[in-house]
Amino acid sequence: MTKKLSFLSLLLCAAAVVVLLVEVRVTEAVTCSPTELSPCISAITSSAPPSATCCSKLREQRPCLCGYLKNPNLSQYVNSPNARRVATACGVPTPTC
């Protein structure tokens, strides 16, 4: 009986840790910084395919794309045909803002 109780306690503690880790991960905020997309510059300014790093950064910055589109200094780059091609290649949908 003691072994079952110890196992159950251990299982409950492990479940609590998993729940806490998931909660922490959900609450992490993305820092919107267009410079985070610098790995995508060569793909956006040429016909080169995006790198894995570019796609990773683009997915990371996805919550920020509407803000970039609304910024007159950035919208011409974010909304360009090459930027859309890169986003499509990375599997990042064009935001509807």
Automatic annotation (TrEMBL):
What SUPFAM superfamilies does the annotation carry?
Answer: Bifunctional inhibitor/lipid-transfer protein/seed storage 2S albumin
Lineage, top-rank taxon, reads Eukaryota
Entry keyword annotation includes Protein biosynthesis: no
Q: Which GO terms describe its biological process?
A: lipid transport
| GO MF term list | lipid binding
Q: Does the keyword Signal apply?
A: yes
Q: Where is the Bifunctional inhibitor/plant lipid transfer protein/seed storage helical domain?
A: 32-97
The UniProt keywords, alphabetically, are: Lipid-binding, Signal, Transport
Q: Where is the signal peptide?
A: 1-29
The record, for InterPro entries, names: Bifun_inhib/LTP/seed_sf (IPR036312), Bifunc_inhib/LTP/seed_store (IPR016140), nsLTP2 (IPR033872)
Name of the protein in its database record: Bifunctional inhibitor/lipid-transfer protein/seed storage 2S albumin superfamily protein
